[in-house]
Amino acid sequence: MFTIRPYLIKDYAAVRRICLDTGMMNRKTEVSKKILAQTECDYYVECEPHNCFVAVDENDVPAGYILCCENFSTYRQKFNEKYVPSIASLSYFSGMTAKGYVALYKMFAGYYPAHMHMHILKEHCTDELRRQLLDTLTEHLRGRDGRGLLVYVNAKDKDLLSFYEDYGFTVLRKTSSYKILGFDLI
């Protein structure tokens, strides 16, 4: 049984570990691990911890999380200033890829200013836990400035895509490697 609670600073190492264990990107080298953490974790817990939630066990140890950027404009400014240069210093190609993420999110920011990353350790990953995390985030975001929420999903992860579509997300863009889905918060 897991409890969903707001992210706390003490969760930083566990959340980063979950990101590295479950993230979409290559995790074979130390450089690729740093890039993954900076792209899918660090911005959210460092700049918007109030929009992040963790699923914890009875010992208060995180087994999963949902991290969110509430406002694309804020994300674009901070991510481009702090994280893109750091990522680019590790790998030129990865720096360009990070800029590409920002450009993808920008395409939909007018209606979907918020975006998220949700990761759960494989041994604990169920649709029920995914739903609990997503319910917590969507309730947190409702009534704020944004109308919608985006998520970027590996196109080969049919189980996760099915979960999001069953939840009410719609596909906004798809390629052979990824899909961007949107959820209406209004």
Q: Could you explain the architecture of this structure?
A:
The chain has 186 residues and is an alpha+beta fold. The protein has 6 helices and 7 strands, in the order E-H-H-E-E-H-H-E-H-E-H-E-E. Strands 1-2-3-4-5-7-6 form a 7-stranded mixed beta sheet, with helices on both faces. Strand 2 and strand 3 (62-69) form a beta hairpin. Helix 1 (12-22) packs across helix 2 (30-47) and helix 2 (30-47) packs antiparallel against helix 3. It is globular and about 45 Å long.
SSE topology sketch:
Blueprint: E1 3-6, H1 12-22, H2 30-47, E2 53-56, E3 62-69, H3 72-90, H4 92-108, E4 114-120, H5 127-141, E5 148-154, H6 158-167, E6 170-174, E7 178-184
Parallel strand pairs: 4-5
Antiparallel strand pairs: 1-2, 2-3, 3-4, 5-7, 6-7
